[in-house]
Design a protein that fits this description.
The structure holds three protein chains of three kinds. By secondary structure, chain A is mostly helical. In chain A, 72% of the residues lie in helices and 3% in strands. In chain A, strands 1-4 form a two-stranded antiparallel sheet. Chain A has a two-stranded antiparallel sheet with strand order 2-3. In chain A, helix 8 runs antiparallel to helix 10 and helix 16 runs antiparallel to helix 17. The radius of gyration of chain A is 37 Å and the shape is elongated. The termini of chain A are far apart. Chain C is mostly helical. Chain C is built from three helices and no strands. Chain C is elongated and about 50 Å long. Classes of the chains: A mainly alpha, B mainly alpha, C mainly alpha.
Chain lengths: 672, 183, 101
């Protein structure tokens, strides 16, 4: 395996012209759609779904053009707008990046998003608050695009929080049910805990190199910048911690299974294909930091990824809810991605992210189709559905095979690449764990397919195939799941368009990318064997009910089974910890609010009232009125006294004249 | 001039006699209980004053006083008394009860004026010439230096005349008014 | 003759007139007292004329005027008294006390 430098590709990359310069449209349109749907959705025929679909369709135009341009020659561009600045140092900018990684993400989000949106038009038809559904979904799409197009960590955090918010809205969509509300809270709070790490990591990075720009970070890391080196380990781990929350790594994975409370399209797009991959994306974007600095952190990251991969995968074996099976599967696959990226397999991890998006979305939508038909999430209410729902059945099978890693479907290629990278980087133990994980994956998917589609129908309704608006996206995704893997066969570069590695390699900073140059058939064979074994065994145990009950009973291994059932008690632990720490705090705050704050305010109010009374009674009534009353009484008295002189009697007036005259004369003669 | 000198002049005897008569009459004017008596006492007082004018050789003024005052004014008074049906006999309620203050005031007035006079003029003497002031002189003065006051006073008289008539006219009864209007 | 004797006489008459003005109840008697006062003034004027002997007999001319005006005043005054008597059937000054508070 040789080391391919990205430099060659960077040299050729064009700047994308008009399409790259206006790529910001993709970020803005869904957000606009959010507002428009909120305003007008209720009146529209599909409750705003048309707008949501339309926005993503327009976005897909840009994404497709950029994708093709990148395939054929590479695109590298960045547009930013300064919105603020601290002193002369830290600058805050918003804008969009157009390079290999972001173009891939744009394409993925818009394509899978569009298919899921179309599916949702049918799935959500007649449900409650459909306009709010599409509004929040559009908000999510916009925030996700903002996230992946972020030129700096600040905008990335904006997008990060945006998808978290949309996730909260959509998980708790049926908020009339308290359990569902709790699930939304759990998701949000778990993510919040992780976000602390993200924000602290961002601050560390920003302060140390003086900018939040990701390209700058890459350069600083590549040049082994000293200030960055000092904080690299801490910052790196903090960023990884943030990624753990969003990408549901052990032990912050607890929210993802509960997030299945949201409508199935939400699970398909957000919690399988895109939102949860944001953590992996973050790792990929800040890859130089880990690559050139902080190699110690990577070991921890790999370990966590490995644990996630295997332990959570096991939980899928015992779940009855079909969505829960797929949720645990998602977490497990995220573990694969994280492990790969942490080990240095930038391309491997991202390739798996892409293929996984296709087939996991497909599986979720298929599950949704089934749930829609059977009106129940539980596989114990299903069975024998392949006769009634053929399209769903075949697409679901395609997805399952892809997930299990059966050649030549997409999952095989991506999983193989991961195994190769792990082996090459020396993480041999982890590689074997990953192979075991492949076995487990195949096993639980076989179980899932068997219980759902084979055997006899154990439910009570009359299941029927879903309408075309729902089945066509399934077919499209199935095609993707089958074919996309061919874009990254190791050593194969398709003429004119290169391969996935090349497309991804178009980026600002030169990175050492560890990916396979040629096919290691031995490793591929082992992986394939594990998968096939898993499928076979699963089929044996859970296949059409013909006398394998014995094996099923034996499967319920005593100690292990309850442990798995209770999800390793981690949820209980988390709940306990949260309850123990925040409960008293919350109670204290409440007490403070009621007695202290309200007390102060009430006291002030009472004081003011007293003051007012005093002013009114004492000052106004007694004082001011007293003065005026006194004055008028005085005037009255004086007037009354003087009045008596006006008797009307002429002689008395005359007497007064005379007296006055005498006085004046005396005055003038004697005094003056 | 001493009192002895003063008494030795016969003019002063005449003056004293007339003066006393005037004072007595004047006093009776204001204290008489009979209205008509009071008017008649005023006549007496005015006659005495006319005599004093003669002593001062102011003949014209003296006789015009007699003519106007006694001849016309008193008559007018008597008419007024008659018309207002003042009781011609004794009338007890003629004076107000409170006489103290007016008395004091009157005394004060007298005291003040006499003191002022004596203080200012002391023993200034009047030399009676024996020749009465010529009416010609008065006439000339009246129509010479004092012609404007003269005219003004005639206006006053005119006004008084007309005013008096108007004021004292009997209001016409509605019948008489109608008669007047139709004519 | 000294001037002062006439002046004192006049002052006395005037004082009588003041007393009468303030004490008498009958309107006619009040007018009578006023006449007395005016007569006293005349005495004063003529006495001064005799003392000063002006070339135009100013004092006496003024006395003429006073007499004239007094006569006019009496005429009007009695006319008013007549009207009052007609309206109120009484010539008592105490009854004419409407101009009060």
């Amino acid at each position: 395996m040789t080391f391919l430098l990205a430099q060659e590709h960077v040299a050729q990359a064009g700047d994308g012209g008009f399409w790259a310069d206006t790529a910001g449209v993709m970020l803005v349109l869904p957000l606009l759609a959010f507002l428009v749907i909120l305003a007008f959705g209720k009146r529209m025929k599909y409750q705003g779904g048309e707008i949501a679909v339309g926005a993503l369709a327009i976005n897909l135009v840009w994404a497709s053009v950029l994708f093709v341009m990148n395939m054929t020659g590479g695109v590298l561009d960045q547009t930013t707008f300064e919105i603020g600045r601290i002193g002369s140092g830290l600058v805050f900018e918003l804008g969009w990046v157009v390079d290999g990684l972001s173009i891939m993400m744009y394409f993925l989000i818009n394509l899978v998003g569009l298919l899921v949106f179309i599916y949702a038009l049918g799935y959500m038809h007649g449900d409650r608050r459909v306009d709010w559904f599409f509004a929040a979904f559009s908000l999510f799409a916009g925030a996700m695009l903002v996230l992946v197009g972020a030129p700096n960590l600040i905008q990335l955090i904006v997008g990060w929080e945006g998808v978290g918010l949309a996730s909260y809205f959509l998980i708790g969509f049926y908020w009339e049910d308290l359990e569902i509300v709790k699930a939304g809270n759990k998701a949000f709070m778990t993510n919040k805990v992780a976000d602390v790490g993200l924000i602290l990591g961002t601050i560390l990075v920003g302060v140390s190199i003086g900018t939040f720009d990701l390209a700058e970070l890459g350069r600083a890391a590549a040049e082994h910048d000293q200030t960055l080196g000092a904080v690299a380990v801490t910052a790196g781990f903090l960023l990884f911690f943030g990624a753990m929350g969003k990408s549901a790594q052990f032990p912050l994975h607890i929210w993802l299974p509960d997030a299945m409370a949201g409508p199935t399209p939400v699970s398909a797009l957000m919690h399988a294909a895109t939102m949860v991959t944001a953590g992996v994306y973050l790792m990929a974007r800040t890859f130089p930091l880990f690559e050139y600095l902080g190699a110690d952190t990577r070991n921890i990251m790999v370990a966590i990824g490995a644990i996630t991969l295997f332990a959570i995968g096991l939980l899928a074996l015992v779940a009855d809810d079909i969505k829960k099976v797929l949720a645990y599967s998602t977490v497990s696959q995220l573990g694969y991605m994280m492990t790969a990226v942490a080990a240095g397999g930038y391309t491997a991890g991202l390739f798996h992210l892409f293929t996984h998006a296709f087939f996991k979305a497909l599986l979720f939508l298929g599950a949704g189709s089934v749930i829609h038909a059977v009106h129940s999430n539980n596989m114990s209410d299903m069975g024998g559905l392949r006769k009634d729902m053929p399209t769903t059945y075949w697409t679901f099978v395609a997805g399952s095979l892809a997930l299990s890693g059966i050649a030549p479907l997409a999952g095989f290629w991506s999983k193989d690449e991961i195994l190769a990278t792990l082996g090459q980087e020396g993480y041999t133990t982890v590689m074997w764990v990953a192979i075991a994980g492949a076995f487990v994956t195949a096993f639980y998917m076989a179980r899932c397919v068997a219980l759902t589609f084979h055997g006899s129908y154990k439910g009570h309704g009359h299941p029927h195939e879903s309408p075309p608006i729902m089945t066509r996206p399934l077919v499209a995704l199935a095609i993707g799941s089958i074919l996309f893997g061919l874009f990254n066969i190791p050593g194969v570069s398709w003429p004119g368009i290169g391969n996935f590695t090349d497309w991804l390699a178009v980026r600002e900073v030169v990175m050492g990318d560890h990916h396979a140059e040629s096919m290691d058939f031995a490793l591929a064979g082992i992986g394939l064997a594990a998968a096939v074994l898993g499928l076979a065994l699963g089929w044996r145990v859970f296949g059409p009910d013909k006398g394998t009950q014995q094996m099923r009973d034996r499967f319920a291994v005593p100690l292990v089974y309850p442990l798995l059932r209770r999800k390793y008690f981690i949820d209980d632990l988390a709940l306990g910890v949260v309850g123990a720490t925040t409960g008293p705090v919350a109670r204290f705050v409440d007490w403070t609010n009621t007695y202290v704050i309200d007390g102060v305010i009430n006291g002030v109010g009472g004081l003011v009232k007293m003051l007012g009374n005093f002013v009114y009674n004492g000052v106004d009534q007694l004082g001011v009125d007293g003065i005026f009353n006194g004055l008028s009484a005085m005037t009255d008295g004086a007037g009354g006294a003087v009045r008596k002189w006006q008797t009307g009697r002429v002689q008395q007036y005359a007497a007064a004249f005379v007296a006055g005259a005498i006085i004046l004369v005396v005055l003038f003669v004697f005094v003056i | 001039m001493t009192i002895a000198d003063w008494i030795s002049e016969p003019v002063n005897w005449v003056f004293s006699a007339i003066g006393l008569a005037v004072l007595f009459s004047g006093f009776r004017v204001v204290t008489s209980k009979n209205v008509v008596h009071a008017a008649l006492y005023l006549v007496g007082a005015l006659a005495g004053i006319a005599a004093l004018f003669l002593v001062l050789s102011a003949e014209f003024v003296a006789w015009s006083l007699v003519l106007v005052y006694i001849g016309a004014v008193i008559v007018l008074f008597l008419f007024g008394i008659m018309i207002t049906r003042a009781p011609t006999g004794l009338d007890v309620g003629l004076d107000s009860e409170h006489k103290a203050v007016p008395a004091v005031l009157a005394v004060l007035v007298f005291a003040l004026m006499s003191w002022a006079s004596i203080d200012a003029f002391g023993s200034a003497s009047i030399t009676s010439t024996g020749t009465p002031t010529s009416t010609e002189l008065i006439g000339e003065s009246l129509l010479g230096r004092f012609v404007i006051p003269f005219e003004v006073v005639s206006f006053v008289l005119l006004g008084a005349l007309i005013g008096g008539i108007t004021l004292a006219r009997r209001d016409l009864t509605p019948l008489e008014e109608e008669e007047r209007a139709s004519v | 003759m000294i001037l002062s004797q006439f002046l004192v006489l006049a002052a006395a008459l005037f004082a009588f007139g003041v007393y009468g003005l303030l004490v008498r109840r009958n309107l006619v008697l009040i007018l009578l007292s006023v006449e007395l006062m005016l007569a006293a003034v005349n005495v004063n004027l003529v006495a001064f004329e005799s003392y000063l002997v002006t070339s135009q007999a100013i004092g006496q001319v003024f006395a003429i005027f006073v007499i004239t005006v007094a006569a006019a005043e009496v005429g009007i005054g009695l006319a008013i008294v007549l009207m009052i008597f007609r309206n109120r059937r009484s010539a008592n000054v105490d009854d004419l006390s409407l101009m009060r508070w």
